[in-house]
Amino acid sequence: GQEKLSCNPRKENGSHVVLCELGNPMKAGAQITVDMELSVSGLEDMGDAITFQLQLRSKNSPSSTNTSVTVTVPVEAQAVMELRGNSLPATMVLPMRWHKVEGSRRLEDHGIKVEHVYQVHNKGPSTVSGITLHLTIPSQLGGHILLYLLELGTEGGMSCTNPPGLNAEQV
């Protein structure tokens, strides 16, 4: 029959040990199959595998068959990333020809302000680090300035690399 095991975690010689009692007394020559499901946290920096040492011990008498078996389980972190974006204003009709005021440092003399906001969200289940987002924005159309890239800002501990031509006229 199937039974639930009683397992207790503890530390032993600096290692985390889970001790499971399989039964007492057992008949000589008994064969038992055990399926274990382990929940392990903090695997973000473990690499691509985790290793367990399994050992069957008897309390009755010391035996040479008390050898350990090493089991290596591959670890794969999974995270669902979501990119959200907004433009303010949501829609914009740009004039066919924009005549900027030469030498002016006022924003309104260089075009209509459009702000794009992007958010990267981790929907889990794992944590993530080292994310790279490549964002391409057309700044010219037909040899004319379409969008003048003024500034790039971040929040939440992110860093960005400024694209070439960012605020080229120091507006």
From TrEMBL:
SUPFAM superfamilies: Integrin domains. It is found in: Membrane. It comes from the Eukaryota. Its main location: membrane. It comes from Pandion haliaetus (Osprey). InterPro entries: Integrin_alpha_Ig-like_2, Integrin_alpha_Ig-like_3, Integrin_dom_sf. GO terms for molecular function: integrin binding. One of its GO terms (cellular component) is external side of plasma membrane. It is a single-pass type I membrane protein. Residues 82-168 form the Integrin alpha third immunoglobulin-like domain. This is ITA2B protein. GO terms for biological process: angiogenesis; cell adhesion mediated by integrin; cell-cell adhesion; cell-matrix adhesion; integrin-mediated signaling pathway. Residues 3-75 form the Integrin alpha second immunoglobulin-like domain. Signal peptide: none annotated. Keywords: Glycoprotein, Integrin, Membrane.
